[in-house]
UniProtKB/TrEMBL annotation:
Belongs to the inositol 1,4,5-trisphosphate 5-phosphatase type II family. GO terms for biological process: phosphatidylinositol dephosphorylation. It comes from Anabas testudineus (Climbing perch). This is Phosphatidylinositol 4,5-bisphosphate 5-phosphatase A. Its EC number is 3.1.3.36, 3.1.3.56. It catalyses: 1D-myo-inositol 1,3,4,5-tetrakisphosphate + H2O = 1D-myo-inositol 1,3,4-trisphosphate + phosphate; a 1,2-diacyl-sn-glycero-3-phospho-(1D-myo-inositol-4,5-bisphosphate) + H2O = a 1,2-diacyl-sn-glycero-3-phospho-(1D-myo-inositol 4-phosphate) + phosphate; 1D-myo-inositol 1,4,5-trisphosphate + H2O = 1D-myo-inositol 1,4-bisphosphate + phosphate. Inositol 5-phosphatase, which converts inositol 1,4,5-trisphosphate to inositol 1,4-bisphosphate. Also converts phosphatidylinositol 4,5-bisphosphate to phosphatidylinositol 4-phosphate and inositol 1,3,4,5-tetrakisphosphate to inositol 1,3,4-trisphosphate in vitro. May be involved in modulation of the function of inositol and phosphatidylinositol polyphosphate-binding proteins that are present at membranes ruffles. Residues 500-519 have a biased composition (Basic residues). Keywords: Cytoplasm, Hydrolase, Methylation, Phosphoprotein, Repeat, SH3-binding. SUPFAM superfamilies: DNase I-like.
Length: 587
């Protein structure tokens, strides 16, 4: 049973805090979340996570000023558990990519800035040139999202170029495997067969390591979305525009290339899609809602799509009619997928594509319902002496001496966005103990007051496996005026000013190299000998990832040295892909 007392933990949410707007949003959202958790998490042996999926070909544009309606934050009821955002044609010109080596790309930064005040944390991200996949989840779900891995497949120029292809993220959600696949397939009317060939190639090449589900289609649920580039056959321009003007979209459904392919392509077997009750999302004159008036006069088409697939479908006799197909589907084991909305967003005009979103509810029985690590902390810390925490390990948890416990400000963006940390050290004497205690020193604590969350980071699993409810810190101000240490390596990019943060932040040290370094520098202080943050040398055993919090050199707090790593794969909580060489433009 999950231990969340959300309302009680946030009753003093805005008290003596510099970031009142963020914390007020947290309280407003959380006041409805207690009832929501009782219904969703403590229900009759099942859980019903809600997922908000977005796909958008942004056409190299910068993010719009306001993404509230696209994210549904203006009408949401607080029940969304996860956001999955798939973008295509994110600006990947050489000068932009060089900036992305030093900074989080603008789109990731905007999404984190907009979602973090509502309690959403970046779980993982994956970048391949213009393709970007972001996965967010409510912070209290983090311990139940396990086995996170990402993959990329290039299909452009015969597989050598990443302007086309697919990026994916897979994970276990409360014990059920889910894969999110964001694709950008070949363009133009005549390339329908090439699109199918590229999709098959992506499915064949994307294989995940160390999991029961090895391929994309081996997962319990697959969500496939992106700029799939399928067009409308046979109908001429005037017929298509007339159907759009008169909201007679069904005329175009039967000529849609993807719908036609479902009847003939084996690889599409089991994939489902809600009815297309919104206008075609391509191609528009940028800055308008007017379909292409250029010399090319592209015929409107539903290029931007969101589909899903269940690994084992119900008996054929349970199929529903075509008009309502795919609104509800279920596994024979009891898993169900319900689509609540499927729509485009005409108000966004920065690209020649319109974004498309869909909201799903997944219902499945419990397989995992307790965290691997339970953290216990007092409701308030009023002095340095109060800064202790206890943690209990589940019997099946494989602990590492490189695990650490982070202290996060309410509204944190990703697992490295901590204000302080301690190592969850493991002495031989307490190896078999179930309960352990750690203490934060004054240097590791934030200056001033506020509401915070504590998270236990597993080095072996490369993710947060235990969190607390929010609690308050009210420490007396010290004589010297020093600001709290913001550990976020997700520095947003600015065209005129470059800021590089020098605190080390990688998820786990590289054990062998780091221990050699320790012995070579035994005269250093304890804070330097074990690395300046729980960050470091994982970058040496796993390339840091694009759009993820990246690390600096070991003992960065002692030496303040900055190092950048270049690559194409990215995660905020990267799975331990130690034998897998990935590229990444992280710092």
């Amino acid at each position: 049973m999950l231990s969340f007392n959300v309302i009680g933990a946030t009753s003093n949410i805005c008290k003596n805090n510099d970031d009142e707007d963020t914390l007020l949003l947290y309280r407003l959202r959380n006041e409805c979340e207690t009832h929501y958790l009782l219904k969703k998490v403590w229900g009759l042996g099942s859980i019903t996570p809600e997922m908000h999926i977005i796909t958008w070909n942004v056409g190299s544009a910068t993010p719009p000023d306001d993404m509230t309606s696209l994210l549904g934050l203006n009408v949401g009821d607080g029940n969304t558990d996860m956001y999955i955002i798939g973008l295509q044609e994110v600006n990947s010109m050489i000068n932009k990519r060089l900036k992305d080596v030093l900074f989080t790309d603008q789109w990731s930064e905007v999404c984190m800035e907009r979602l973090s005040p509502f309690g959403y944390v970046l779980v993982t991200s994956q970048r391949m040139q213009g393709l970007l996949l972001l996965v967010f989840a409510k912070y209290f779900h983090l311990p139940f999202l396990r086995g996170v891995q990402t993959e990329t497949t290039r299909t452009g120029l015969g597989g050598y170029w990443g302007n086309k292809g697919g990026v994916s993220a897979r994970m276990s959600v409360f014990g059920h495997t889910i894969c999110f696949l964001n694709c950008h397939l070949p363009a133009h009317m005549e390339n329908s067969e090439q699109r199918m060939e590229d999709f098959e190639s992506i499915l064949q090449q994307q294989q995940f390591e160390g999991q029961a589900a090895t391929g994309v289609l081996d997962h319990d649920v697959v969500f496939w979305f992106g700029d799939l580039n399928f067009r409308i056959d046979d109908l001429d321009m005037q017929v298509v525009k007339s159907a759009i003007d008169n909201n007679k979209f069904s005329i175009m459904w039967e000529k849609d290339q993807l719908n036609l392919a479902k009847d003939s392509e084996t690889v599409l077997e089991g994939f489902q899609e809600g009815p297309l009750k919104f206008p075609p999302t391509y191609k528009f004159d940028i800055g308008t809602n007017t379909y292409d008036t250029s010399g090319k006069k592209r015929k409107p088409a539903w290029t931007d799509r969101i589909l899903w697939r269940l690994r084992a479908t119900a008996p054929a006799g349970a199929a529903v009619d075509a008009g309502k197909r795919s609104s509800i589907s279920g596994l024979t084991s009891g898993t169900k997928v319900t689509q609540h909305s499927y729509r485009s967003h005409m108000e966004y005009i920065v690209s020649d594509h319109k974004p498309v979103s869909s909201i799903f509810t997944l219902q499945f029985p419990y397989k995992v319902d307790i965290p691997l690590v339970t953290l216990i902390v007092a409701d308030e810390w009023n002095s340095v002496a109060d800064a202790t925490a206890k943690f209990k390990l589940a019997p099946n948890y494989s602990r590492s001496s490189w695990d650490w416990i982070g202290l996060y400000k309410v509204g944190f963006k990703h697992h490295k966005d901590y204000v302080g940390y301690v190592w969850a050290k493991q002495e031989e004497a307490d190896f078999h103990r179930q309960e352990h205690e750690v203490t934060f020193t004054e240097e590791e604590l934030p200056k001033g007051s506020g509401d915070f969350i504590m998270g236990y980071y597993s080095n072996n699993m490369s993710s947060i496996v235990g969190v607390t409810e929010p609690f308050q810190i009210q420490l007396p101000m010290s004589g010297h005026n020093s600001s709290s240490s913001d550990s976020s390596d997700f520095s947003s990019e600015d065209d005129s000013t470059v800021h590089i943060k020098t605190r080390a932040r990688s998820p786990s040290p590289h054990k062998s190299k780091h221990r050699r370094r320790r012995s070579a520098s035994s005269s250093h202080s304890r804070s330097c000998s074990r690395s300046g943050s729980p960050a470091q040398a994982k970058k040496k055993e796993l390339s840091v990832t694009d759009g993820s919090p990246s690390s600096t050199t070991p003992a960065a707090e002692c030496k303040s040295t900055v190092r950048a790593a270049e690559g194409s794969s990215s995660q905020a909580s990267t799975p331990a892909e130690k034998d897998k060489h990935v590229e990444d433009p992280g710092v």
